[in-house]
Amino acid sequence: MADLAHTAPSLRWRWLLPAAALVLAFHLSGVGGALDRAFFDAASRHPFRPPPLPINSALVLVDEQTMSAMSAQGVRWPFPRIIFAQLIAALHLAGAEKVVVDFTFFEESDAMQDQLLAGVAAVAPSVVLARTAEQSPVFWPASYVAAHPQYFRLRRTGLVEFPADVDSVARAYVAPSSLAFAALSAPVPSPGGLLRWHGGLYQYPDLLKKKTESRLTAKGVPVLSASQFIAVGRPIIERLTNAAPDLDVDSLAKALAAEPPLTGETAELVRGKVVFVGASASGTFDVKPMPVGKIEPGVLIHWTAWTNLAAGGFITALAWPFVFGAALLAGGVVLFSGRNHLSLVAPTASALGMAALLLGGSYAALSAGWFLAPATPVSAVSLVLLGVIAENFWRELRRKREIQSMFGSYVDPGVVAELVRNPASIRLGGERREATVFFSDLVGFTDLSEKLRDQPELMVEVVNSYLDETSECLHRHGAYVDKYIGDAVMAVLGAPQHLPNHALAGCRAALETQLAITGINTRYADKVGVRLAVRVGLNTGEMIVGNLGSSRKKNYTVMGDAVNLASRLEGANKAFGTGILLGEETARRVQGEMVTRPLARLRVKGKLQAIEAHTLHGAVGTLSAGEKEFVEAYCAGYAALVDRHFAAAAATLSRALVLRPDDLSTHRWHTAAVTFTTAPPPPDWEPIVSLDSK
User: Fold this and answer.
1) Neighbouring-strand partners of residue 60
2) What is the bridge-based pairing of β-strands 580-582 and 488-493?
3) How many helices (H) and strands (E) does the chain have?
4) In angstroms, what is the C-alpha Rg of the chain?
């Protein structure tokens, strides 16, 4: 395993070039761009720090209310040019600083109405109209502008086009010569960039209710219906046309100058403000997909760009060298943290930390005016982590195979599995764990050795058959076979694998072991002339489990008082004439599943405290009627004896003795009960049996 550690750098560098190629492919693919756009949209909807908002703006929209009002008058969309003249005149006389109209007038209409709208828009210096790179408003041709230079000294038109991404969503804005640029009172040198969004249309009314910072007004951004201004503008246009029936521009200018300013609450909402006029009604077909909403009025883009120019500045997208630099740095951190190939905790934690740092940093940087597209750096982190995981997986797989090949033939598969799962357990030491210990020994082995003195191969064959059958019984019930001591077997249930019902599993394995010896006798009785039997001791308790031994040789084993008692119980079968003895805790845990019988309070050599030993008869529901009757009679007699009801104990044990006259414990306690009937023992007497040998 030490050799494997030295191969880590060479293995790691082997997949770095393919990983870099995959990162580049991801960056150039549409997937990376889509993820970056989705991240930008989410951050725009929920900014880390809301962008600054100019205090002097308002939105006037041809909304559903406007469409209904016009429909009631028999007017359909697109509205006649006189309606726009009414709207513009009303906003101008309401005192708007700028009236930025996001409507394109590129087709000729009624000549009189075109002339009226051209004149009203020209003589109102606050008005800015939309144009494209190829075409100005149809009623403001170059000849018209040249003929009335006094009205066109300021920028009166702005480009209405804006770029959209491949998903048709507008996220960026080109500032020079734009509609937003024309709305500025003083030019601001800016090429544009990604837009800092303030939210969707229906978020703006909420600003009216908010207490904002001192540089903002408490009124926020009014969003108003165009219908009220169109209605107010109707009499204004009527007076203008009466005063200038030939619609001469200068005459219109004098008539407009003579009009009194509009007053009232609605006028106050636009007075002194830069007003953006657009459409939000579904029938106007001027709604666009934006990062802050699936469908928003197109004028919102120009208004947002104007706020960026006037207050906060655009967001600059960092170029690809910065993106790849971040990817290289983040991937390098994950790679360096994975230099210890024995654990994936460090590289995984580093990858999660770097991903969080990239995403969080990019999110926070948007509020500072910078956008680092995070998809490529995060993909680099993911691919490097994937490479570290794959490398560790193959190295771990190779190491497991080496461990299994080295130990598989000599060590229990359960221990091998534990070593594979937890290589750190291959060291001297241990832990406290509750488990059940199994000891078994062959009865008749001495006679077998004598009879097969000249046939050692046959003796080994018989013993190996017994060991094989016993081991299989134990393995089936989740036991770990610790060691073979000649013809004896020691096993543990509950270590190294955790086994919830280890006491019950041990009892079942013990019963199967006794059945297995019957089969061995059937196969070998004629050959060897000896019938074998097996004695089993089972005990449950807390013990030390772990790898014990020297630096040259280790053994995964158990030790402690509970282990020693299991060994003594196996030997105590001789004194009780039984095949399976259980410790007190083991018997207690299997009640309800197994039929057991208490034999005595057993005190083994070297111990002062006695424990109640039980013999195992079988699983509940499997005993014959005679054996069941015997167990019930014996248990009743034994209980009466312990409770010092000696006459009742003698009578009941007498009946049990009739059912099984050769049972040593029944005979022992029947004799004691008869004796105690006439000569009771001391008050502290207990049915204790002491063993002087191991």
Assistant:
1) 224, 277
2) unpaired
3) 26, 21
4) 48
Q: What is the pLDDT of residue 219?
A: 43
Domain identity same for 96 and 180: yes
Mean model confidence pLDDT for the chain: 85
| Residue 129, CB-side half-sphere exposure with 13 Å CA sphere | 24
Query: Which spans in 434-557 are helix H?
Result: 445-451, 456-476, 502-528
Instruction: Report d(CA 559, CA 393) in Å as an integer.
Output: 36
Q: What is the total count of domains within the chain? A: 3
Average pLDDT over residues 122-147: 94
Identity of the residue numbered 126:
S
pLDDT tens by residue, 616-663: 999 999 999 999 999 999 999 999 999 999 999 999 999 999 999 999
Contacts for 208 with CB less than 8 Å, ≥ 6 apart:
219, 220, 221, 222
Three-state SS at 332: helix
Outline where 165-248 has alpha helix (H): 179-182, 204-207, 226-243
Cα separations (Å) of 573 from 534, 535, 538, 669? 10, 7, 11, 17
Residues 95 and 163 in one domain: yes
| 694/637 Cα distance (integer angstroms) | 29
Is the peptide bond between 78 and the residue preceding it cis, with omega within 30 degrees of 0?
A: yes
Q: Are residues 223 and 366 in the same domain?
A: no
Enter the DSSP assignment of 202: G
Q: What is the DSSP string of 8-34?
A: HHHHHHHTHHHHHHHHHHHHHSHHHHH
| 48, 353, 426 from 614: Cα distances, Å | 73, 59, 37
Same domain, 34 and 90: no
410 in any annotated domain: no
3-state secondary structure 605-672: CCCCCCEEEEEEEEECCCCCHHHHHHHHHHHHHHHHHHCCCHHHHHHHHHHHHHHCCCCHHHHHHHHH
Instruction: Kindly report the number of other CB atoms within 10 A of residue 1's CB atom.
Output: 12
Q: Which domain holds residue 11?
A: 2-38+318-395
**Does any domain span residue 260?**
yes
pLDDT tens per residue, range 195-245: 999 888 755 544 433 333 322 233 468 889 999 999 999 999 999 999 999
CB atoms < 10 A from the CB of 603, how many? 17
Query: Which strand (E) or helix (H) includes residue 596?
Result: strand 594-603
- The verdict on 141 and 106 lying in the same domain is yes
CB 471 within 8 A of CB 563: no
Burial (CB count within 10 angstroms: exposed 0-12, middle 13-18, buried 19+), residue 440: buried
3-state DSSP assignment of residue 127: strand
What is the spatial distance between Cα 277 and Cα 84, in angstroms, rounded to a whole number? 10
Q: Do residue 373 and residue 500 come from a single domain?
A: no
286: tokens are: 């001027």
Domain boundary among 315, 338, 357: 315
Length of the chain: 694
Query: Can you tell me the distance from the alpha carbon of 294 to that of 600, in angstroms, rounded to the nearest whole number?
Result: 84
What's 595's DSSP letter?
E
CA-based nearest residue to 190, from 177, 199, 204, 171: 177
pLDDT digits (tens, 9 = 90+) for 518-538: 888 888 877 877 788 999 999
Question: Are 363 and 234 contained in the same domain?
Answer: no
Q: Of 281, 354, 369, 353, which is closest to residue 69 (Cα–Cα)?
A: 281
- The torsion angles phi and psi of 614, rounded to 5 degrees, stand at -120, 150
Q: Is the peptide bond before 496 cis (omega within 30 degrees of 0)?
A: yes
Per the listing, tokens 């699983």 go with 619
